[in-house]
């Protein structure tokens, strides 16, 4: 099995699980924050809107390591939120990944949402929709773009290494179960040890994971009622 | 690494079975802890305590901690959260109060950490040494030199490519100390700081035909993947004392951070320096070679492990520790190592 | 039945109930920035009649209809439904009033889903979140029968056979008919149609006009914005003429077309007024 000979199954399964767990929750949180934000920014005209949108797209390229360092400072015992003892936990990783996934999600879904014609929103309103209904309708109309946004955010979260390494601490317990080690940070360990083949093998697993998530997303997208029909 | 981990668990398991059946041998380390294990077994229903250990990558990547920590965890009903970082980063983590105990190898930085009051009760744990490695064709002609500073000076003169960790790790600190001692401030295109871990650095040095400074443990563990050769040996093989690589354990001062698990950190320091912990260290091998030499046990008191390295009326550094170190080497390292 | 006088007379109990649904605009003035688009417009749509609002493009018909559909509050003037000032109401009550008004648009406005889902939209948003969630779950696990209301609304526009089609696959005319079915499905008291047949072929135009008449016959107050004089003459009971941002003439359609009191109206009707 391609250079994985010296990694046991418990280890592989648990780092994969941590990767999925952290990225999935991070994407869910950023969707919960990001979609309403995209709706609000997309539909409203306000002073400084162009500044807000360019700040959001700049956030897409924000260095993850910097996010990691900021979260580290905040969560450290000597930092403002030290009392919660969140540093070096999966929760800290979810926090930093949410921050990283958010701009991607908002930015991509914003353009999808803005491409929903005004006419459809008007039609919904005139058919008796409340603002919340109109928002839901727009999300439904923009579902292709939003699923793409979710996948892009997921891709960013699951393949990211800099910030999870810093705020997670790359911890594995002595029974080979991962606490805060993900596939990506496991790859850094292998690289550090010079085990290039093992690192690449882990990369292949990561790639397969991202691929399956994308396939799942595409499937969901195509099966949504009113979506592309066979 | 995982093979070794599995092998160890197997060995421990076998030892336990033998222990139960009464056919005890004196070879199974878990037995020493059996009394305590049973004692703490009464508390096993209670919460398992967690110990956050910030440490250098060399102890982690070589698999040593995979051999030590399970035994400690069993004995103290604890869970060790190991954060492998460079020595600089590990000390910084502890300085922020985010670790309970550190296991590192940069005496100067450790002393500073202690003097600032962040750490207490430092203990020597073990040592190995650094080696200067490089391509087989040895463009700077340093092979066999008995002085690391001469070798570094030669590399600088020849402007042969040198790859530096550049990550404030213990190895990096040692490397800078050697340049300093050689009277060279490395600069120029031949000197490359890469900010990577030891294994990456060895791979990169290998790929670019460069010299680098490596701890012996990681070099031995990585040897199969790279074509680098040792050109200057460390003190374990009669090399210069400047290449010594001593590891210390330091609990974080509970007076600075009341939330740290100080009792468990002290237990960890105590375990590492106990006969049992020291035996695990000396039994641990990779590629058939012993990687670390324990030095916590001694017939006579070792004051220098508690006081700053240069403590000797403020005179030249290493005046106390170097003879001490040489003594350890002669006592612990087999002739044929 | 198609006689507007029947309604104007307010004779029966049924009609006294429908008086409450009369839509009235009083002194509407509205604009964007520099100039007023609408100036002091007063207009009434009675239940059971079709009011045609005619005028050349750019005279503010669409703005007027958006104000009538409560998209936004006019700069000045009032919109009243059943005699009550809509913008003086609390939000919740205004939503209830708004839900008694249906609207069709000039542009394509169907959602990217099936015809049935489109027509059911107005019914769905009027239900509790709990019911909607349950329906969504049921919908996800198998086909649910379209409600009779949806089927009836599609019948009105002659689109029953397209109920399962994807709305995006419809022609422009078919889409417009479905959009009107969507407006009719929640059984509104007022139906506003903004240029519903511009650029449509005669067959689709006829289907929409027939739907308008059927709505009127059910007692719905129908307002139709159109630039097509012949259509206004064909279907409406009363006509209001918008010119230069204001209403220059209104009255029974026959009278307005035969003896316009304003010379500009006469020239406009004869197609001689060019903008």
Automatic annotation (TrEMBL), chain A:
The chain crosses the membrane at residues 12-39, 51-74, 94-113, 200-220. Coiled coil: none annotated. Keywords: Membrane, Transmembrane, Transmembrane helix, Transport. The keyword Transmembrane helix applies. Pfam families: BPD_transp_1 (PF00528). InterPro entries: ABC_perm_TupB-like (IPR049783), MetI-like (IPR000515), MetI-like_sf (IPR035906). It comes from Haloferax marinum. PANTHER family: PERMEASE COMPONENT OF TUNGSTATE ABC TRANSPORTER. This is ABC transporter permease subunit. It is a multi-pass membrane protein.
Automatic annotation (TrEMBL), chain B:
SUPFAM superfamilies: Periplasmic binding protein-like II. Residues 32-47 have a biased composition (Low complexity). Residues 314-330 have a biased composition (Polar residues). It comes from the Archaea. Residues 25-47, 303-337 are annotated as: Disordered. Residues 44-276 form the PBP domain. This is Molybdenum transporter.
Automatic annotation (TrEMBL), chain C:
Keywords: ATP-binding, Cell membrane, Membrane, Nucleotide-binding, Transport. One of its GO terms (cellular component) is membrane. Residues 23-269 form the ABC transporter domain. It comes from the Archaea. Transmembrane segments: none annotated. InterPro entries: AAA+_ATPase, ABC_transporter-like_ATP-bd, ABC_transporter-like_CS, P-loop_NTPase, PstB-like. GO terms for biological process: phosphate ion transmembrane transport. One of its GO terms (molecular function) is ATP binding. This is ATP-binding cassette domain-containing protein. It comes from Haloferax marinum.
